[in-house]
Amino acid sequence: MIAAQAKLVYHLNKYYNEKCQSRKAAISKTIREVCKVVSDVLKEVEVQEPRFISSLSEMENRFEGLEVISPTEFEVVLYLNQMGVFNFVDDGSLPGCAVLKLSDGRKRSMSLWVEFITASGYLSARKIRSRFQTLVAQAVDKCSYRDVVKMVADTSEVKLRIRDRYVVQITPAFKCTGIWPRSAAHWPLPHIPWPGPNRVAEVKAEGFNLLSKECYSLNGKQSSAESDAWVLQFAEAENRLLLGGCRKKCLSVLKTLRDRHLELPGQPLNNYHMKTLVSYECEKHPRESDWDENCLGDRLNGILLQLISCLQCRRCPHYFLPNLDLFQGKPHSALENAAKQTWRLAREILTNPKSLEKL
Asked: Phi, psi at residue 216, to the nearest 5°?
């Protein structure tokens, strides 16, 4: 048993050093190329409308606010200034979303975003995004990369296609620190010792973002109130949770396996599903020793089996907002197909670790 476990860990480490690292290097190169173009577009936007200031900056070899969705798909979060005169309201009526309401009607004219406030005093995510989309479309025509970048049509999101190879979504957002959403108040679960009080404090201090984008749970039934709502996102808090042990290595292996074998019709799985399942695995295995390097094989198998279970049940709850299903709107046939493919992959890795050389 120990020998089999050691063999799997050996092959996983080899896989990580070869396949995962070359994936990382390729994506880093793409990110540099993509960020050059996006920065140029955002510079043009800022000239037209100084309220949309580019917050895309490089820190310690990573770009602040950039999320990798897949090797050809990225999201750049554009942080907006001055949320000050609004109250953050998440009463659970819109899973995964919240609204920003004027704290006092008399303060309307004091807001930097006055023309995007609805009659009932909400700051409309949709109105801000619509204005931003118009500005980006104009900037794309003017920027120095206009030959290689174009807007993706037929969507209310702001998406650019670069060199016909990459798609980047630019999402206006507010950063919220010093508060924690009521819809995530159940976390951390009281009976689970992970992640421990110090890490919990760090995670909550990271706060969350409010994004102006289409909400998962609202597809197909957007009333005006819903389209004014902002989507909750916890990227920095989630990254903070996965520090220590082989957690990040495990996620890197999962992402690489996904890119190479689970990029399927209907796009049932993305990197975020993998990140979510690693967080759940941390709860199931709360001791730091469970995440020693020699446990990498066990943790990976556990996550792949959990992924199969989620695909078969057609439900993958968001880690901080379990009422939000990350498989919402995915075709059932695509989820079934992904379950079969994941099962093949898991069986292959478990019964023949050497197969990782070809995966």
From this structure: -40, -55
Q: What is the pLDDT of residues 67-107, one digit of tens each?
A: 999 999 999 999 998 766 788 998 878 889 999 999 887 77
| Local structure of residue 17 (DSSP, 8 states) | I
Backbone angles phi and psi of 318, in degrees to 5: -60, 145
- pLDDT band of residue 109 (cuts 50, 70, 90) is confident
Q: Which CATH number characterizes residue 197's domain?
A: 3.30.460.90
Residue 195: cis peptide before it, omega within 30 degrees of 0: yes
Q: For 43-61, give one letter per residue: b (16+ CB within 10 A) or e.
A: ebbeeeeebbebbbeeeee
SS3 29: helix
Structural domain boundaries, residue 194: 1-358
Angstrom distance (rounded) from CA 76 to CA 56? 8
Q: Is the dihedral of CA 152, 158, 162, 165 positive or negative?
A: negative
| Number of folded domains that form the chain | 1
Residue among 161, 328, 348, 341 at smallest CA distance from 263? 341
Average pLDDT for the chain: 92
Strand intervals (E) in the chain: 58-59, 62-63, 66-70, 73-79, 86-89, 97-102, 149-151, 159-162, 166-176, 208-211, 230-233
Q: What is the pLDDT of residues 159-181, one digit of tens each?
A: 999 999 999 999 999 999 888 99
Confidence of residue 222 (pLDDT cuts 50, 70, 90): low
Burial of 359 per CB tally in 10 Å (0-12, 13-18, 19+): middle
Chain position carrying tokens 């469970």: 290
8 A C-beta contact, residue 166 and residue 70:
no
